[in-house]
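Retro notes
What went well: the complex prediction finally ran end to end.
Inputs used:
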Amino acid sequence: MTQQFDNLTELHQALVNKDLSATELTQQTLTNIHDHEDALNAYVTVNDDEALAQAKQADESGIDADNVFSGVPVAYKDNLTTKGLLTTAASKILYNFKPVYDADVVTRLRAAGAVTIGKTNLDEFAMGGSTETSYFGTVHNPWDTTKVPGGSSGGSAATVAAGDVLAALGSDTGGSIRQPAAFNGIVGLKPTYGRVSRWGLIAFASSLDQIGPMTQNVTDAAAMMNVIAGRDERDATSSSKEVPDYVAGLSGDIKGLKIGVPKEFLGEGIDEGVRDQIKTAIKKLEALGATVDEVSLPHSTHGIQAYYILGPSEASSNLQRFDGIRYGYRTPNAKNLEELYVKTRSEGFGDEVKRRIMLGTFALSAGSFDAFFMKAAKIRTLIIEDFKKVFDDYDVIVGPTAPTPAFGIGAETKDPMTMYMNDMLTVPANLAGLPAVSVPAGLVDGLPVGLQVIGRPFDESRVLNTAFAFEQNTTFHELKPSMSKGGRA
Amino acid sequence: MAEEPISRAEVEHVAELAKLSLTDEQASKFTSQLDEIITMIDGLNEVNTDDVKPTTNMADATAILREDVAVNAHQKDALINEAPETEDGFIKVPAIIDESEDA
């Protein structure tokens, strides 16, 4: 395959026209992935044989002209279960785990004809913002391999940015889709809480987790949402609300759109280069016919504090199930059952996971429950109310996705606190359950910056259309790392 | 809040509750890190939350009922195969009481 494809529509057309077969496409994708793996370490598992078998099957049954994912390779974050295919959550405790069922999002994409190309690397159990806590090693940023790709969906972001695949799935508990999307110059959408089924997502914090698309452009993210969104009776939190056609919703017209820019999102702690780039982006939205006002989300500055109580509390509960009995790692040297639990967990979990389990156990323990867990749950209510007030008068909220561009590998791992502060701009949308996208907004010192657009619950269409209008009137999404074979020199 | 948000003894207690054992070095490191994190999150106390209701559930629906019908997923063998140790179709675990240490 010598020609390159910038988006799913072009690729789909080539498959329909038989300019290339699904098998050729998958073969080339696998070659590209392996060529990049030494530099990126974006995958825990590359699904070589099975992906080729799936592609062959797509060729034999014929490419579905009405289905943009027919015969197209898709990468899944390795905390999404894939039947019979290793699913580790980047943890030693699941180093050998082969699920007996597919996640709902995987089932939907497989039904749409997507080829499962592999399972992408992440921070262990999605706990981190740099993909450095993986048991399977650090992921590198394709723009500069001395930098982190962000996290926790760092592998998905890196493989999309490197041009290996056009579409990957990530999960976002406190920014884990949007921040790596920003750091890699791609599009990442965290849908509304309840919009996408979490059946088969290895749970981190169940009141915050959402699965969403990571793609090279907004249209492809919308196309992916068309497949993965909707009610699933196996996830009781998934919504029955009708799923609109997200691609059809991309008019590119934002005349009269009312945009609020929270002053808290451009204040202290935001890198100057990022701030300038975002201010320029906001002027662009204004030039396209939107009205822009400064607004305030006064409690959002407490988002990090609430998040680092609620997230770990839920995690400490969710991760109780990893005990070495039914699946995964089991310590070889336990004399009795109690020792089996303790040694399996102590040997199987990495430091960041242990830190969060202990933090959560502490926040939920007698004597701390009211002071920490309940306090944070009340702050969460105040954060939700702040958003509601702004959305009474404004259609979307915009600001930066992350306070800085990608930082150096190893720069923040020694100090968890510095790492946690990176999430300040992304956690509010999780705490309030709102849809939010990161879209490329240029470079600072050669590294990508993301513009974040947050919307009302279930208003993904408007969020995506705002990002689309910005994308179509800028050239930032055409910037690609030199490693990407789809780069336009 | 006390001057020291969390002591080493508390960290060791919390680890025990979470079924984790820590080396000396880990206990020291986690104590200072958790101390710093808890000091940070304790900043929430600056905010007045009198009369504020907590949010602990984001789902917009309440209980959804379904027919109470048993379904055989025919996955027993596949599930048992995932267990680290099995015998005769059962998951095998070590003794609950360590007999080797019986007096």
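What we learned: The mean pLDDT of chain A is 96.
What to try next: split runs per interface for comparison.
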